[in-house]
Design brief:
The complex is a heterodimer. By secondary structure, chain A is an all-alpha fold. Chain A is about 75% helix and about 5% strand. Chain A folds into 2 domains: about 160 residues, no CATH class; about 120 residues. Chain A has 10 helices and 2 strands. Chain A has a two-stranded antiparallel ribbon. In chain A, a hairpin with a 2-residue loop joins strand 1 and strand 2. Chain B is of the alpha+beta class. Chain B has 5 domains: about 190 residues, FAD/NAD(P)-binding domain (3-Layer(bba) Sandwich), CATH 3.50.50.60; about 110 residues, FAD/NAD(P)-binding domain (3-Layer(bba) Sandwich); about 130 residues, Jelly Rolls (Sandwich); about 120 residues, Jelly Rolls (Sandwich), CATH 2.60.120.10; about 170 residues, no CATH class. Chain B contains 23 helices and 41 strands. In chain B, the strands form 11 sheets. In chain B, strands 1, 2, 5, 6, 7, 8 and 17 form a 7-stranded mixed β-sheet that branches. In chain B, helix 4 packs across helix 5 and helix 13 packs across helix 14. Chain B is globular and about 90 Å long. The chains are: A mainly alpha, B alpha+beta. Chains A and B meet through helix 2, helix 3, helix 4, helix 5 and helix 9 of A and helix 19, strand 35 and helix 22 of B.
Chain lengths: ~290, ~800
């Protein structure tokens, strides 16, 4: 498979490395009669390149949604986006001449670094998380796990006949109060917030452990063979359910991780654009 | 006193009403006899509000009665109105039980004992009144029935419903309330059922309210009068025979002509086939002079055809040789040929010149020509190219064509046909065909030809024989003339295999080779006591020649992955072919050596085999181009779906998340462009087509929204969707939040019916499939099954 990082034999990786080297050599060769900064001719050149790069990088958001476009494939664009974005770090740093301060110029630089670093995370997530997701799901799809859970619930309901009423209430509440997903924090923590009711008290049922525990207590006490086998089956079902839920929670966590970084990357990029405009305007106004 | 009429019309369906109305219009003494209480029984039985179609669209309506597409209620009330206005002499509850006499003096006996006299009879009774019967031993038992009047009559019974159509499902569901119901399905799914019924039956099966036997056929019914249940039904299932003690069998197997009644009138049928229709002249007259047959009973199930026939038949009875309603269409079609002949004469000439069409009646051939195109081609015109995806059938009316296979050219002359290989296999064209001097060919669409093949054994036989000899020539003996190959071809045999049936097993003695004619197979090798699938072979390829060349046992097990047809050539014939074609042995040995090497590599890769088996289980064996998603790269962004929606009027034709997964391979719900598409089998306006080079199956704008294709697709990739509005400009949405996000178009207001939508492989989008081009990580790929091995190893 062609990963986005090795797209066309790392075409954009090579381009980025070569240009970064070239720019660095020019920077070393260039000896202005003032400290290196954005105001020299080389500084302006790097600044122009960096500005164009930022605009081009942000245009990716449009290209991705331009479904009729025939300029390359989105995969190629993404590969270039990742590497040219990394290259931006070199160009912009050379443009700054390593002069930083508490001003709008350094703010623009810092925002750019924020966008690039979140992008690094995104690239890592896009390459690594799908593998982790598949490993977690283990040959099945999340839909199939949901199906499995509803099958288990159905089977549990069928097994309830003849059980003492408090136990039936406990089991039904365990099914009703099984929780999955939720707000962002819950999705990311993948912590189980399931509950159940035991004689009108709400108790945590993390990993269905309380439910299983209660069932084993009853099983140990059971003298009737029929009841014993019923309880055993129920314990097995809740154990399978707990496993399926765990896998789904991890799946939800990975899905969240795959999405969440964009909520940082995109706003920071727009903030960068604003800061960049301020940076350029201020430079020209106070020339 | 017996009432006397000039024309008695039996059956108040569309054809009968039209005939009687025309007679009324002309003031001819007539009577329209209807067995039931109301007109158009078949249409009355449609569900409430059903949209009645007016197909074929190109055919003009010629009738005293009006008819346009509309709701069932509107159509029926319009007809009632017409009957009243024209003062049609209609009599309800007047079932005809016997006909005697001859032309000019027929006597019709009604069920109530009354007699009616008529000079001519028009029979328009349709086929729906006559359900298809079970034909297994014991099926004459009184507890076997073919309809269900009142389900409340049955309580606490063991009831078996045979059939998998809507009627069967509806009966099973309603009976399951108070009875123990089994449903017998010959296939492995309810492919013919409406979506609503499908979900109801699936739910009932899940909840164990009904028990279903799939892939099962009833074998016998044994009577057990001394036991609690009156009978035992023996079933043949995949897992062996099953015996069910039963109280009742309800068979819902569709309808066929009420043959016994019609034969009692003296009308003859061409063969014993239960779906056969009576032989008719070009004026709809049966073999009994004075008895005319129109509509579904005559083989014309469409409403408009039946109505036109009703009008025409009255004219014919009056002795007016009017031209059929389709005459101008044909005249127009034949105009460019420049023949100085009448339409009828051209048709006769065509049938005389092209033997494969000779067995067709004049009426059927006429209909075939309405569907067909006639081409007069300048010499040198390419009719189709090798690897094209067209699949129509061509016959040569005049001149000759050159069939180019590799570097050899075979001439085909007047009266011959070509293009039958792709017609049958559904695969790409295997040769290029170029028109010779003064060449005229008739191009018949695949749908029409398939209908013909299914109803005419003789046409099918001719095609099959030709197919075999041409396959042998193409595969093994391109330079050997057809005549020399005929003896070998006559020994070759056609075989049919159901999905998962084994063609031959590893270790069997190799006694023949197979050429796959349609369908596809998987090749599996036994590794450590387990069969590991190693590769997939599509139609138009040869398998089993390795064993024959080496004179050894089979080195692998071959299993049909879908319904598959093959041609077998035995070892003796194959030896003759090797003799006739020098160089063939060497060429095949080279290929064999390569394949041996490949097999060893693939057999060692267990996961590949498992993925291949998984793909075959998903029915991808019959795919020609399928969308797969590599889960190791998919980031769930759904850009593929958005891309599809944006490029296709706002409705995505793929569902990324749905569909099965195995290891890293995910099969999303999206069209696979089957080699023999089920969706194309029953499209009333013929709106589903197969494209050119890409081979894409697509639906054009003439879709009427009947939903047949959605129901017929075994993979659930066709959806019924409303037309959507065009979306606003991207930048307006992006910058000012105006309008809808890309791919989230609003549903169009006003008159808007749901029509069928499916993947068209982005045939109208420059640059190819949008789903693949829009995937940011390269996880989405489109692939044809021949390349599966590559996918598995990505």
């Amino acid at each position: 498979m062609q990963s986005i990082l090795y797209y066309r034999n790392g075409r954009y990786l090579k381009l980025t490395v070569w240009f970064s080297l070239l720019f660095s050599l020019v920077y070393i060769w260039h000896q202005p009669n003032q400290p290196a900064n954005g105001g020299t001719w080389l500084g302006y050149t790097f600044g122009t390149i960096a500005t164009l790069l930022i605009l081009w990088l942000m245009y990716f958001g449009r290209r991705k949604r331009n479904y009729f476009s025939n300029s390359g494939s989105v995969q190629g664009w993404l590969s270039a986006h990742i590497y040219f974005g990394s290259g931006l770090l070199v160009v912009a740093t050379l443009h700054s001449g390593f002069q930083f301060g508490v001003n709008v110029h350094t703010l623009a630089y810092a925002l750019m670094c924020g966008a690039i670093v979140s992008g690094f995370y995104g690239a890592w997530a896009y390459v690594y998380l799908p593998l982790k997701k598949r490993e977690n799901l283990n040959m099945m799809s999340s839909d199939e796990y949901f199906q499995e859970i509803s099958d288990i619930d159905r089977q549990v309901n069928k097994l309830l006949g003849g059980l003492p009423e408090p136990l039936v209430l406990m089991i039904t509440s365990a099914i009703e109060q099984t929780s999955l997903g939720g707000n962002l924090a819950k999705q990311l923590s993948a912590k189980d917030h399931s509950c159940l009711m035991v004689s009108e008290n709400v108790m945590s049922n993390e990993d269905q452990a309380t439910c299983i525990n209660m069932l084993t207590i009853d099983l140990a006490k059971a003298t009737n063979q029929q009841l014993g086998s019923q309880l055993k089956q129920l314990i097995d079902l809740f154990a399978s359910k707990s496993l399926a839920l765990k896998i789904l929670r991890e799946d939800i966590r990975i899905n969240a991780l795959l999405k969440i970084w964009l909520f940082c990357h995109v706003p920071v990029s727009f903030a960068l654009l604003a800061a960049l405009i301020a940076h350029i305007l201020s430079v020209f106004i106070y020339w | 006193m017996i009432q006397q009429y000039k024309i008695a019309v039996i059956g108040a369906g569309p054809g009968g009403i039209s005939a009687a109305a025309h007679a009324a219009e002309l003031n001819i003494p007539h009577i329209l006899l209807e067995a039931s209480d109301d007109i158009a029984n078949t249409i009355q039985k449609y569900q409430k509000g059903k949209h009645v179609m007016a197909e074929p669209g190109i055919l003009p309506l010629r009738s005293a009665v009006t008819f346009a597409a509309g709701s069932r209620e509107a159509v029926l009330s319009e007809w009632q109105e017409n009957i009243k206005q024209l003062q049609v002499n209609i009599r309800y509850q007047a079932a005809v039980v016997a006909v005697s006499g001859e032309q000019g003096a027929f006597q019709l006996a009604l069920k109530n004992g009354e007699m009616i006299a008529a000079e001519s009879i028009v029979l328009g009774i349709g086929v729906q009144g006559n359900p298809r019967q079970l034909t297994i031993p014991g099926s004459d038992a009184e507890f076997v029935q073919y309809s269900l009047d009142n389900p409340e009559d049955y309580h606490h019974e063991n009831i078996v419903v045979v059939g998998a159509g809507d009627a069967a499902i509806e009966n099973a569901l309603v009976l399951a309330k108070h009875n123990n119901v089994y449903i017998i399905n010959r296939r492995d799914e309810f492919a013919r059922a409406k979506e609503g019924n499908l979900s109801l039956i699936t739910e009932a099966l899940d909840n164990e309210q009904i028990q279903c036997f799939y892939n099962t056929n009833p074998v016998t019914i044994e009577l057990t009068p001394e036991q609690d249940n009156p009978g035992v039904l023996v079933l043949k299932t995949d897992a062996g025979d099953v015996r069910l003690a039963i109280d009742r069998i309800i068979a819902r197997l569709g309808a066929i002509p009420p043959r016994a009644l019609i034969e009692s009138f003296g009308i003859e049928f061409p063969n014993k086939d239960p779906i056969a229709t009576p032989v008719l002249s070009a004026t709809y007259q049966s073999n009994v002079a004075g008895i005319y047959v129109i509509g579904a009973l005559g083989g014309y199930p469409l409403i408009k055809q039946a109505m036109n026939q009703g009008y025409e038949v009255v004219e014919y009875i009056l002795g007016n040789a009017i031209k059929p309603a389709d005459h101008p269409l044909l005249a127009n079609k034949f105009a460019e040929l420049g023949f100085a002949l009448e339409v009828d004469d051209i048709l006769t000439m065509m049938q005389a010149k092209i033997p494969v069409f000779a067995p067709l009646s004049k009426l059927l051939f006429r209909e075939l020509m309405l569907d067909s195109q006639v081409h007069r081609l300048p010499a040198g015109t390419e009719i189709f190219k090798k690897n094209d995806y067209s699949n129509s059938f061509y016959s040569i009316l005049q001149g000759e064509v050159d069939v180019v296979i590799g570097d050899s050219v075979i001439k085909s002359t007047e009266g011959n046909f070509f293009g039958e290989m792709s017609l049958i296999s559904g695969r790409r064209r295997s040769a290029t065909v170029v028109a010779g001097p003064s060449c005229i060919v008739i191009e018949t669409p695949r749908r029409t030809m398939i209908k013909l093949l299914n109803s005419f054994a003789s046409v099918k036989r001719v095609l099959d024989e030709t197919f075999i000899v041409r396959t042998i020539q193409q595969k093994f003996a391109a330079k050997v003339p057809i005549d020399e190959l005929l003896p070998i071809a006559s020994k070759a045999k056609l075989h049919q295999y159901a999905a998962n049936e084994v063609l031959f097993a590893e270790g069997d003695v190799a006694d023949c080779l197979h050429v796959i004619r349609s369908g596809s197979v998987t090749v599996a090798k036994r590794v450590a006591d387990k069969n590991i699938a190693i590769t997939y072979v599509a139609a138009n390829n040869v398998i089993g020649e390795m064993g024959l060349l080496g004179n050894t046992v089979r080195s692998a097990t071959i299993t049909a992955s879908v319904n598959t047809e093959t041609i077998t050539i035995d070892s003796e014939s194959f030896a003759q072919l090797l003799e006739k074609s020098p160089g063939l042995r060497e060429a095949m040995q080279d290929e064999m050596q390569q394949r041996h090497q490949q097999n060893v590599e693939l057999a060692n890769d267990k996961q590949s085999g498992e993925i291949l088996s998984f793909l075959m289980q998903q029915g991808i064996g019959e795919a020609t181009d399928v969308l797969l998603i590599n889960n190791d790269a998919c980031v769930n962004c759904d850009n593929c779906e958005t891309a599809c929606a944006v490029t296709h009027g706002g409705t995505s034709r793929l569902n990324r998340q749905a569909g099965p997964t195995y290891a890293h391979v995910h099969v999303p719900t999206s069209c696979r462009h089957c080699e023999d598409p089920s969706c194309m089998k029953d499209c009333p306006p013929d709106a589903i087509h197969r494209g050119g080079l890409g081979g894409e199956v697509y639906i054009d704008d003439s879709c009427i929204g009947c939903g047949n294709c959605e129901r017929n697709c075994p993979y659930g990739v066709i959806q019924m969707a409303y037309q959507k509005e065009q979306n606003s400009n991207f930048w307006n949405w992006m910058l000012f939040d105006a309008g809808q996000a890309p791919g989230k178009n609003k549903i169009q207001q006003g008159e808007n019916i749901k029509t069928a939508v499916k993947c068209d492989m982005c045939k109208d989008v420059k640059g190819g499939p949008a789903c693949v081009r829009a995937c940011p990580t390269g996880a989405a790929i489109r692939i044809s099954p021949e390349d599966f091995i590559n996918v598995i190893n990505i």
